[in-house]
Specification:
Serine Threonine Protein Phosphatase 5, Tetratricopeptide repeat; mainly alpha; 706 residues; Ribosomal Protein S8, Chain: A, domain 1
Length: 706
């Protein structure tokens, strides 16, 4: 006698029945010889366990009886105990996308336990058989094959090649109107094995045979494309649905949020996402991750945080992938503080970080210059035995160089050289040489250069720039010229950054030694050389010619270098005691839009903004402003109650001191009535009455440009 397998129903509560889940609290699976995840179409052992109620086609009545149960008692017995309706029915939401399929699937419940066992064994036999033996095995089903048996066999198969042969066999035995169900369950197999091309080929065959695809067909194809990381194919299938008279349901639209986000179609993705929030769809975690990545690539980092916070609205807990996505976005945004908060939330939620988590954190902390946090992550990775790649090492080295952690940078560099996972590259050596050049350690920079060459890595323009700066900072002009001549033989082409470095070396070089650098400037940039020679050769020349040469120079360099060039040239003019040329350059910078918002005016206050200006440019801008104030006073224009100068708190990258300390002494020398604000760092203020008296007391000044 065949062994009996039973599904027991617990009438303690009711819920929407999930045909794909064997872990539902209302069903207990006993003694099944196979894993339960294949019970796609098996509801119970009895012949009619779930019958549609005549009052509600979406309410299925439970008829499982026990000899001692009240249901087994005589219905006409007045002493029999009646049971509440809620314990005899499973209510299914008629708006659910599964509701219409349950009516079709309830006929599949006619599979008995013995049939289940034999059909499961048959499916396994088919998976392992040869193509020639398929018909022989299927003939054991007899001449009449019902749809539930065919669907069950196909749904439990794992071999797609054999499944195609089985499908054709069943098509010959089952009515054509049922073929779409057979195709759909076979397509699901191709989805499980991630064979999208095979699924497309099967769909083409389906259309050629005149079988009309259903919404389940498209749902399977779209989810197959998503599973195979082919979001563009998912979009293609979704947009082809109307041509087959199929309207997508909420589940498909929710899946398309992920697909449209992955292909970068922000308009479509966000339109569906807004609908999901309004209509309260279920949105999968991968869709949230895809939206965060989409916003991150577009530079919309606030959008990343909004999607992350929306997960709370949906009641969805972020998983590791989602956390990594938002951490990476915060790293790109240089929002180290937000990355830190999100990481702490992740750990408090019991999610352990993995390698991508630490990589995203390092990027965020290094870019945000959270030096202690970055070094803590580095230490934790080493303690956990996680390998650092060359990108992470280089980020740490660059951060240490920027914040002045020289000893720590050397320690990390030595650890990198001993690592089996990666070796120092060009960027590694360049970062170290740049670090040494910023602090003027010539011997260390030279040793690193030699090690770089010994490792077979050729120096690049970045290394040349750093070395020249290092020699210039150490006042070793001859060595700077020598290394430049050596590198020119390697075919290294000077760029704008290198030329800017040459200008800054000239600013730090005594006037009598500047001639040593003129040939270097000529080789690096002839247009820059023309402007520099006009300043050095003390030719009175025409102002128009000088401005024309400078204008041609500024138009020839990239946008990021224009302000730096102009700052450096003005500094050189100040050092050479040529204030007129400095004023010409500042005026040209204002006209060309190189400098913007240096001055601003309101009814209550006039400002002079000197942030991001070099010392010479800032002093020249002050001259301009004082001149404008004098003209305003002479013309009878009313000055505002308050006047202010904003120097900022930082300093120019090539300066030894910040503007605050320099301007404090300079304003004192001018006897100007500006005083440093105690409540607002980096600001100097005065009143209109005080500045009027000061301007009137100095009818002529050497600082004010004529």
């Amino acid at each position: 006698m065949a062994e009996s397998y039973r599904l027991r129903f617990s009438p303690s509560s009711t819920s929407t029945f999930n045909s794909r889940s064997s872990s539902s609290p209302h069903f207990k699976l006993l003694n099944f010889p196979s894993s339960p995840h294949k019970l796609s179409y098996l509801y119970t052992q009895s012949k009619t366990p779930l019958q549609a109620s005549s009052q509600n086609p979406f309410t299925f009545t439970q008829h499982h009886e026990h000899p001692n149960s009240p249901e087994a008692a005589n219905p006409h017995d007045p002493h029999a105990k009646s049971q509440p309706l809620s314990k005899n029915h499973i209510w299914v939401n008629p708006r659910s996308s599964r509701a219409k399929h349950l009516r079709k699937k309830k006929s599949l419940s006619s599979i008995s336990a013995s049939s289940f066992s034999s059909l499961l064994r048959l499916a396994k036999s088919l998976d392992s058989c040869s193509q020639q033996d398929v018909s022989k095995i299927l003939n054991s089903l007899g001449g009449k094959i019902v749809e539930p048996d065919a669907v069950f066999v196909l749904d439990n198969m794992l071999n797609p090649e054999i499944a195609l042969i089985v499908l054709k066999y069943f098509q010959q035995k089952i009515k054509p109107q049922k073929h779409v169900v057979l195709y759909n369950v076979t397509l699901k197999l191709f989805r499980e094995v991630k064979d999208f091309k095979g699924a497309e080929k099967l769909f083409d065959e389906m259309i050629q045979r005149g079988v009309k695809p259903s919404i389940v067909t498209f749902s399977t194809m779209i989810s197959c494309a998503a599973t195979c990381s082919l979001p563009h194919k998912a979009v293609e299938w979704f947009e082809n649905m109307p041509s087959f008279e199929c309207e997508p349901d909420d589940n498909i639209c929710s899946t398309m949020i992920y697909a449209y986000a992955r292909v970068g179609n922000a308009y479509k993705a966000l339109s569906l996402y807004d609908r999901a929030k309004t209509e309260k769809w279920h949105v999968d975690k991968v869709a949230f991750s895809a939206l965060i990545k989409m916003h991150g690539k577009a530079g919309n980092y606030d959008g990343c945080l909004n999607v992350y916070n929306d997960m709370k609205f949906f009641g969805t807990k972020p998983n590791l992938v989602t956390y990594n996505s938002v951490l990476y976005a915060m790293g790109r945004a240089r929002r180290a503080w937000q990355a830190k908060v999100i990481y702490e939330e992740m750990v408090s939620n019991g999610i352990s970080p993995n390698w991508p988590t630490y990589a995203a954190l390092l990027q965020a902390y290094c870019r945000g210059r959270f030096k202690e946090d970055a070094l803590s992550v580095y230490k934790e990775m080493k303690e956990k035995g996680m390998d650092m790649n060359v990108v992470l090492y280089n980020m740490l080295l660059a951060m240490c160089a920027d914040v002045g952690y020289t000893d720590k940078a050397v320690e990390i560099f030595e650890d990198m050289k001993s690592s089996a996972a990666c070796r120092p590259d060009s960027f590694t050596f360049s970062s170290l040489i740049d670090m040494y050049s910023c602090i003027g350690k010539v011997s260390e920079a030279e040793e690193t250069l030699n090690e770089m060459i010994d490792n077979g890595i050729q120096p690049n323009i970045f290394v040349l720039t750093s070395l020249v700066r290092c020699y210039g900072k150490a006042k070793r002009i001859d060595d700077a010229v020598k290394i430049l001549n050596q590198f020119s033989g390697l075919g290294i082409v000077p760029d704008d950054r290198f030329c800017d470095t040459l200008l800054n070396i000239m600013i730090q070089t005594p006037k009598e030694e500047l001639v040593k650098l003129t040939d270097c400037v000529e080789k690096a940039n002839p247009k820059l050389s023309s402007v520099v020679r006009c300043l050095l050769e003390e030719q009175k020349g025409d102002v128009v010619d000088f401005r024309r040469e400078a204008c041609e120079l500024f138009n020839s360099v990239d946008a990021e270098s224009k302000k730096s060039f102009c700052n450096s040239l003005i500094d050189l003019c100040v050092n050479l005691n040529k204030p007129d040329r400095a004023c010409d350059l500042l005026d040209l910078g204002l006209r060309l839009g190189i400098y913007t918002d240096i001055q601003s005016r309101s009814q209550t206050m006039w400002y002079l903004h000197l942030k991001r200006l070099s010392l010479g440019a800032a002093l020249t801008a002050l001259c301009f402003w004082i001149n404008d104030l004098s003209k305003a006073l002479e013309s009878g224009e009313d000055l505002p109650p308050l006047l202010g100068i904003d120097t900022g708190l930082g300093k120019h990258k090539f300066a030894d001191k910040g503007l605050v300390s320099v301007f404090e002494s300079h304003l004192r020398e001018l006897n100007a009535p500006f005083h440093e604000a105690t409540h607002k760092a980096g600001w100097f203020f005065t009143t209109n009455e005080a500045v009027k008296l000061w301007l009137q007391s100095r009818c002529s000044t050497k600082i004010v440009a004529a």
